Every structure is written in structure tokens, then in C-alpha cells.
Amino acid sequence: QSTLVIAEHENNALSPITRNAISAAKKLGGDVTCLVAGEQCGNVVSELSKASGVAKILVAESELFKGRLPERFTPLILASQNQFNFSHIVAGASAFGKSLLPQVAAKLDVAPIGDIIEIKSPDTFVRTIYAGNALLTLKSNDAVKVITVRGTNFEADPLEGGSVSSEPIEPPADTPKDISSFIKQELSKSDRPELTAAKSGANFDMLYKLADKLNAAVGASRAAVDAGFVPNDLQVGQTGKIVAPELYIAVGISGAIQHLAGMKDSKTIVAINKDPEAPIFQVADYGLVADLFKAVPEMLEKL
Amino acid sequence: MSLRVLVGCKRVIDYAVKIRVKPDKTGVVTDGVKHSMNPFDEIAIEEAETIRTALAMGADRGLHVEVDAKEAETLSPSHVSKILAEVAKKENINLIILGKQAIDDDSNATAQMTAARLNWPQATFASKVEVKNDKLEVIREVDGGLETIEVKLPAVVSADLRLNEPRYATLPNIMKAKKKKIDKMKPSDLGVELTKHFDVLEVSEPPQREGGVKVEDVDTLIAKLKEVGRI
């Protein structure tokens, strides 16, 4: 038994969810190998090389991997799989991992196992269905398990105490170059902590002020994103981000099941809503029935 | 370039229904529960319709690939992607638009797997699609914001929430739709075997959060949060 972890990275730094994927891989047992593919991966490889319990790092450096197109990553992963015969292939359940791993699974003719929240044994996993309103425990019959991991359910690997060696691998010659191309990325810029790695989520101007006071991230409901108040990447919920911060302050959030799916694992939930019947109060540790336009400024003043 | 578009649709428990797990933990209660089209698939259809109108081209018909009730229970994106890929080949399709995920199993895999089986490029989580000759320029929703890619046709697109706003089906259109031709076939007609990739061991209730307390005012809220060390 052995596991390949697909490392995700951005601007030469490892994406936090890769650390969660590594700790899930360790939980599976057996050797853990990481695959890093990108244009220039030096920093990412040196970050990863400090991980204890990782056997080796495969490094594919090429301009081909600009923009992380799945059509170009899939052949590389398949080539590594052919060479090393991993029993498990794991990535974080991010936009990148979710785009890529089902492709790999299709090529191996296995069923991908998406967004797992628990590992019961090397072939048995728990994942959420129906927006988190039911838990599915499944036993895979496939020879190779292709898995994406929900970051909030596996602690981040500390990336300490190890000294992992790396070896280069070549992208396969038949990597398709002209069926897809990356044009550009427009990332929302913020000095605040990244949503999935931060302290709380909530709704805008005064909320940004509140978030700054608490060193928190700002998240939003679908309605707020659809209305154009905030960019898409702030959406929390079934089809957006899943977060589990120490403190989640839901301001003016009614609590549709699709939204709850994205935040109900938060350690402490505070709800501020003027409607005392809002479903959000059923999951909130502390509920304040109040007009947010009065309560939030008051909080800003008193914090 | 002339386009032949295939859209996949899934019937799921309506998004507004509160899910109940069966007491024997084999699944969720579906009898007598309102079902609807998967919301993301409505977006996929709307997009196909938009592209079609833009190019003023015709022909629309339905295709129902029937699986029996027992097989349907373990039908997964692996199987559906095989079916879609075979249909695409048979029908000379060059664009497949699917919802990015179904709101029942939340798998988010069918589009990616279909693309891989056909060796076509994919544009997942699309929030804008523009046809440019034999290519599509697609804006995708990714973790940090938006990303623009170009894919060459034939291709697979998966629709995210903000790709468009699906129209409501009007009564006259529903009546018209009833007259449209729907071909029926079985997976075996397409040479697809529904191999079982996994066993469902259990479907259970998630742990419920204990209901908390209501606080009187902002002062009490701040005091409570300080007490538990959250601020």
C-alpha cells in the first residue's frame, strides 16, 4: 500500500490544503509520495521536503503546467501511477483537486471518492451527501482509490522534522498542448486571512471593519454573491467553500441548508438576525435577535 | 462551426426538502418526497439554449437512458460519464454542458470524467461561456477568484451557479415539450456495463449541533465570547 499526494501550489507557495491532504495520506498508512508539478517548484519542494513521514517528492518542472490545466496534469499523474503502482491517489477537495482527480479516476476506470471527511480504513471512507444532511459510508471495490479530502476535517501536517529527497520526472511526450490553454487569473486581493484558513465569516463594509478588528476573513451567502456585493470566492456553502473556523459570526444570514453545509462545523457560531425564527439560530451557540445595522456598529464600538 | 450540444439532466430530491435518513440506514427517504431537476442542470440547459439561439440553429429532442431501480441506487458519475461519452460519439456531439454537481450526492465528477473518457478538454465551474469559432473562452470560478481559459471544441463544460438564470418553464412550453420526441435506450444499448465500484455501508444522520442560547444584547454577546476565549 502506498499513496500519491498531488501537491497544490500557487505563486511558488504550497496551498494550505495540501498539508491536510498529506495528513490524510499518512492516516491511510503505507508510503507517502508527493507530486509537485509547475513552472518553478523550488520553494514548494523545499517546503514539502521538511515533512516527516513522506518517502519522496516527485518533481515535474515545465512551462506546460502553467495555469494548472487538468488535461496536462492527468497524463503526468498516470505516468507516475504506471511507474509506482500507488494504491491511493489523494488531493485536496479544492477547485483544483475537484477538477483534476475525477479525470484521473476515469482514465484508471475507477470511481473517484470526492470530498471525504473521514477515513475508516484504507478502503472505507465517509463523505457528506445532500448538503451535509446525511453521511455516506462507502467501501471502495476499486484497486486504486482516487480521493479528494475536505481540508477542514483533517489537521494540517506541520511540515516539520523530515528531510525528504526529491527526484525529477518528465511530463509524458503525448501531453496534449493545444486542446486547452490558460489565459488569465483574476484573484480577489485581500490582506485579510484567506477564507478557508481563517477565523470567521459573515456580510460588507461594516463587516470588513468588524473582520479587521477580529483578524477574521469575510464570507458570504449565495444571495450576497449573486447580488454582486462580494466576489464568488467568498461564497460559503454546499457549492462554495466549506469552512470550520474557531468563530463564525453569521450576520443577517437566515440559514438555508445549503449555507449551513458550508459552516456548521465551526467551533463557535454566533448568529445576529432580526428574525427570531431564522433557522440559523438552531445551529448557533450564541444567538442575538437584533437588527444587524444596529448590532454590528455597536460591536465595532465595544470591541 | 456547427454545434451539436448534449446536456445531461439528473432528477434529485428538491433543494428545499429536508432530507430524512431511513431508519435502517440504507439511504434517504425518497417515497412521497418532491423531486425536481438538479438546479445546476437547469443552468446547463439554459446555457445550451442561449448558445443555440445565438447561433440560430435547431433540432431538439430528448434521450432517456433507462436503468432499473436497483442499478439506479448505485449509479455513479463513473457510469453516467460512460453513458454520456457513448451518446456523444453516437450523436456526433461536439459540446457537452452539464451541471457542476448534483445536489443529492454532491459528487462533482461527471463532467470531468466524461471529458477524460472522450479525451476532450474540460471547462469546469463555468460562470461565462463564449463561442469563438472552434473554441470556447470560458471564465471559471476557482478558489481565489476567477480564471479564464480557452478550450478547443469538442469540449465539456460544467455549469456553476452564476453562468445564467434559468427561465421558468411556462405552461405553453410544457405542453409543447410533451410533444417532443424522447428516444429511450438502455446502458447496454450503448455497450456500457454498470460495474459496481463501491458498496454503501451506511447512510446516517450527521451529528446534530446542540442548540445554543439566545443572548440579550451586544454586551452579553461580547462577554460570552470573551468567556469562551473566542475573542
UniProtKB/TrEMBL annotation, chain B:
Cell location: Mitochondrion matrix
Gene Ontology molecular function: electron transfer activity
This protein's UniProt keywords: Electron transport, Mitochondrion, Transport
Gene Ontology biological process: amino acid catabolic process; fatty acid beta-oxidation using acyl-CoA dehydrogenase
One Pfam family linked to the record: ETF
Electron transfer flavoprotein alpha/beta-subunit N-terminal domain location: 25-194
Record's keyword annotation contains Hydrolase: no
GO CC annotation: mitochondrial matrix
SUPFAM superfamilies: Adenine nucleotide alpha hydrolases-like
Family matches, as InterPro entries: ET-Flavoprotein_bsu_CS, ETF_a/b_N, ETF_b, ETF_beta_N, Rossmann-like_a/b/a_fold
Record carries keyword Transport: yes
CDD domains: ETF_beta (cd01714)
Function: The electron transfer flavoprotein serves as a specific electron acceptor for several dehydrogenases, including five acyl-CoA dehydrogenases, glutaryl-CoA and sarcosine dehydrogenase. It transfers the electrons to the main mitochondrial respiratory chain via ETF-ubiquinone oxidoreductase (ETF dehydrogenase).
Similarity annotation: Belongs to the ETF beta-subunit/FixA family.
Subunit organization: Heterodimer of an alpha and a beta subunit.
Protein name per the record: Electron transfer flavoprotein subunit beta
Organism placement in taxonomy: Eukaryota, Metazoa, Ecdysozoa, Arthropoda, Crustacea
Gene name of this polypeptide: ETFB_0
